[in-house]
Amino acid sequence: MQNKIIFVIVLTIFFVGATFFAFNSAEEISVAENQPVEPATKIVTVFVSGQVKNPAVVKLEDSGDLRKVDAVNAAGGLTDFADTEVVNLAEPIFDGAHIHIPTKEIFFQETSENLQAESESTLININTADETELQKLRRVGPAIAKRIIEYREQNGRFQTIEDIKKVRGIGEKTFQGFRDKITVN
Hints:
This protein has 185 residues and is of the alpha/beta class. The chain has helices spanning 2-34, 68-74, 105-122, 131-134, 142-155, 172-178; strands spanning 42-50, 56-62, 98-101, 124-125, 182-183. A three-stranded mixed sheet has the order 2-1-3, covered by helices on one side. The longest helix has 33 residues, at 2-34. The model has no long low-confidence stretch (mean pLDDT 84).
């Protein structure tokens, strides 16, 4: 009988322990279920090109308020030639977007105007140039320079740059060597 009492006590301890363990586990699960679950961080991937320091595909954590400026900053920021007048940097962005920052047109207009003025100022006017200036032309030495001036004095101004081929000693090959360096204006 003593064995039965010990068996009943052990069995009771076992059931009490199992019940206690099950109750605590259920409480831990319910506590975990009531805790707020943080949403998974959304990643937005966009391609940033044009006048940014490091054109690239950039990945940004979407906090719900991503703007084009965020993507541009992730690509290293703007270059000095960026035209921000035509791009709204405050505009929201979406996954897979392409953000292109164009180049200022003024820069290219000024540069091409400067190059054109520079090239015009370096052209030699065959109607007014002296011997020294004419000798700056490829394949024109002192003798041909004198002939150009003599032709001008005898026949008047050259009407086109091609008229210089009428001067003795200037053929097509010589003319092609300096045609882009002369003018009649």
